[in-house]
């Protein structure tokens, strides 16, 4: 079982490329990899699928929680909808 940081380091994939692949912002990947933020269940499942199971949902339970740690609310990098005229 790998952490997201370990997966990115060993795969050679950049945070930006991984973020684009799962449709989230690079800053979110950075926070997740550093353990500053925990993913929502939906995002943890996306990460598990994107890493072919190498970073399973259960791996996030192994991270020591920090009282100042953020929780992801699955902020995808979607563009705002245009106003209908």
TrEMBL record:
Question: Which portions of the chain have biased composition (kind: Polar residues)?
Answer: 56-70
Read off the Pfam families from this record.
Answer: HTH_3
| Listed InterPro entries | Cro/C1-type_HTH, Lambda_DNA-bd_dom_sf
- Report which superkingdom the organism of origin falls in: Bacteria
Report the protein name in the record.
XRE family transcriptional regulator
Molecular-function annotations in GO = DNA binding
Chain ranges of the HTH cro/C1-type domain: 14-60
Task: Please give the residue ranges the record annotates as the region Disordered.
Answer: 51-85
SUPFAM superfamilies per record? lambda repressor-like DNA-binding domains
């Amino acid at each position: 079982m790998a952490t997201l940081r370990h997966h990115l380091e060993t795969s050679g994939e950049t945070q930006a490329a991984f973020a684009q692949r799962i449709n989230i912002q690079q800053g979110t990947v950075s926070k997740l990899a550093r353990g500053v933020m925990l993913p929502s269940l939906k995002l943890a499942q996306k990460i598990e699928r994107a890493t072919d199971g190498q970073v399973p949902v259960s791996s996030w339970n192994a991270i020591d929680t920090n009282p100042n740690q953020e929780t992801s609310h699955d902020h995808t990098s979607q563009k705002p909808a245009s106003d209908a005229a």
